[in-house]
Design goal:
Rossmann fold, 16% strand, alpha/beta, 209 residues, single chain
Length: 209
């Protein structure tokens, strides 16, 4: 079976209805889902949290679904912004990896339960574009996988998917790895704001701004 967005189905769990705008399921084009990576321990009073809410809202208002790791922090913030704007929110959780976490955050409209960390990352990479928000080792891992997939796309005669990283920290990481590994940093666009990130994604996916 395949999912609503055309992805192979993992174990899923329907989410309870929230007191938020009703989620309407539009007919999505093939380029319809953006994966968002970000810190799981960011608090609601952190400026990065508000930026992540805005990121989710902007994407949903543009008619895109969002996919996150499904838990708290910036993953929840993105989910909140998208869900409150009437968007579809996919949360890819990994209960066996994070048994201490209670499950997907309350803004997720469809939870996908992955059996391992690698399966979770693989599922997120099925999206049509990726945005990395501030985060730590987990976010770094997801960003590196997205970058690598963009790099190897040339060998399959395909086009690299858009990968955008928000914040000066990622710019430093990308620049250093370009120097150390002699790889192609241009496959990751580094920007300073979520507005720039979303605008670039819309252009790359050929959607109206």
């Amino acid at each position: 079976m395949v999912s609503l967005l055309g992805w192979p189905r993992l174990a899923t769990e329907p989410r309870a209805t929230l007191e938020t705008p009703e989620v309407r399921i539009p007919r999505y084009s093939p380029a319809s889902t953006v994966a968002i990576f970000g810190a799981s321990d960011c608090r609601a009073d952190d400026p990065a949290y508000a930026e992540a809410v805005r990121c989710g809202r902007l994407l949903a208002e543009a008619g895109l679904a969002v996919a996150t790791g499904g838990y708290g922090g910036l993953m929840e913030a993105v989910s909140q912004g998208a869900r409150e704007a009437g968007g579809v929110v996919i949360g890819v959780t990994a209960p066996s990896v994070f048994p201490h976490r209670e499950g997907a955050n309350r803004f997720v409209s469809e939870e996908r339960r992955a059996g391992s960390l690698t399966e979770r990352i693989h599922e997120l990479m099925q999206a049509d574009a990726a945005i990395a928000l501030p985060g730590s080792i987990g976010t770094l891992t997801e960003l590196m996988v997205a970058w690598n997939l963009a790099y190897v796309a040339q060998y399959g005669h395909g086009s690299p998917k858009p990968v955008v990283a928000v914040g000066g920290r990622w710019r430093g990481v990308i620049d250093q790895l370009e120097d150390e590994l002699e790889t192609e940093a241009g496959l990751v666009l580094c920007v300073e704001s979520v507005d720039e990130a979303v605008a670039n994604i819309l252009v790359r996916l050929r959607l109206p701004l």
